[in-house]
């Protein structure tokens, strides 16, 4: 992989749900009701399929049934070699590098088993340029900001996670193999901001780069 990598040409993009401690805590007693009756004990994953992929500069369609969308700033771990049953000490050696991700979602109340209808609309996973692992410091301590029309609306970071980047890889590869070209998101921070059609959204992750997209209403051409 080179440093001009824009988005995966093969592989799978995986989102991770409720990996931010504050996001999980914000649910309160909801995590103890049926059918689960307890907080999640393993990573909750979902797929951002090829139709969701976009790159910086692309426009993202705001569907008419969801006038506002959640902007899910996060960090993507780009897998560089086959990862199966990895250890914490060895986990990051399987990462070729990182990308800035915007895990866009239609606002919704459900939190387990996220619906593809909310997560997988066309263009709902813009990705920034690939940055090699060696060029980035600790992936668990990177500042992240979200700006809408140039105004910062969220200041967060890649820390505060229930599972660090390495631990997430350990827990995921315990039950499934990740392959080169796959991307695993560390998950979205609590309180993802909303944006509307006509607004420009810029996500910055220190040391990794910037991702900018404009939201549009109507059909993309």
General description of the model:
This protein is mainly beta. It has one domain: Fumarylacetoacetate hydrolase, domain 2, CATH 3.90.850.10. 10% of the residues lie in helices and 33% in strands. A six-stranded mixed sheet has the order 2-1-12-6-7-9, with no helix packed on it. A five-stranded mixed sheet has the order 4-15-14-10-11, with no helix packed on it. A hairpin with a 2-residue loop joins strand 10 and strand 11.
Order of helices and strands: EHEEEEEHEHEEEEHEEEE
The biggest beta sheet is recorded as:
6 strands, mixed
The second-level CATH architecture is: Alpha-Beta Complex
**Which CATH class?**
Alpha Beta
* Quaternary structure: single chain
Strand order of the main beta sheet, please? 2-1-12-6-7-9
CATH superfamily: Fumarylacetoacetase-like, C-terminal domain
Principal-axis shape equals globular
CATH topology: Fumarylacetoacetate hydrolase, domain 2
Low-confidence stretches: 1-6
Strand coverage percent: 25-35%
Q: How large is the count of helical segments?
A: 4
Proportion in helices: under 10%
Q: What is the C-alpha radius of gyration, as a whole number of Å?
A: 16 Å
* SS-based class: mainly beta
The total strand number stands at 15
- Give the domain tally: 1
Mean pLDDT across all residues, rounded?
Answer: 87
What's the topology here?
Layout: E1 13-17, H1 21-25, E2 44-47, E3 53-55, E4 59-62, E5 68-70, E6 73-79, H2 88-91, E7 95-102, H3 116-119, E8 125-127, E9 131-132, E10 143-148, E11 151-157, H4 165-173, E12 183-185, E13 194-196, E14 200-205, E15 209-217
Parallel strand pairs: 1-12, 3-8, 4-15
Antiparallel strand pairs: 1-2, 5-13, 6-7, 6-12, 7-9, 10-11, 10-14, 14-15
């Amino acid at each position: 992989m080179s440093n001009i990598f824009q988005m995966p040409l093969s592989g799978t993009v995986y989102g991770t749900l409720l990996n931010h401690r504050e996001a999980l805590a914000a649910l309160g007693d909801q995590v103890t009701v049926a059918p689960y009756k307890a907080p999640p004990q393993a990573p909750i994953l979902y797929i951002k399929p090829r139709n969701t992929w976009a790159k910086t500069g692309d426009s993202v369609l705001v569907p008419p049934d969801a006038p506002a969308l959640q902007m899910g700033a996060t960090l993507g771990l780009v897998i560089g070699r086959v990862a199966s049953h990895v250890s914490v000490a060895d986990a990051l050696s399987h990462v070729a590098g990182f990308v800035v991700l915007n895990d866009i979602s239609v606002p919704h109340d459900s939190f387990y088993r996220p619906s593809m209808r909310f997560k997988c609309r066309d263009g709902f996973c813009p990705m920034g340029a690939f940055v090699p692992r060696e060029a980035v410091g600790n992936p668990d301590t990177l500042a992240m900001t979200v700006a809408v029309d140039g105004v910062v609306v969220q200041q967060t970071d890649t820390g505060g996670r229930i599972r660090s980047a390495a631990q997430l890889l350990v827990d995921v590869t315990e039950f499934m193999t990740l392959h080169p070209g796959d991307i695993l998101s560390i998950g979205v921070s609590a309180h993802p901001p909303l944006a509307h059609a006509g607004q420009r959204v810029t996500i910055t992750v220190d040391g990794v780069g910037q991702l900018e997209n404009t939201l549009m209403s109507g059909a993309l051409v």
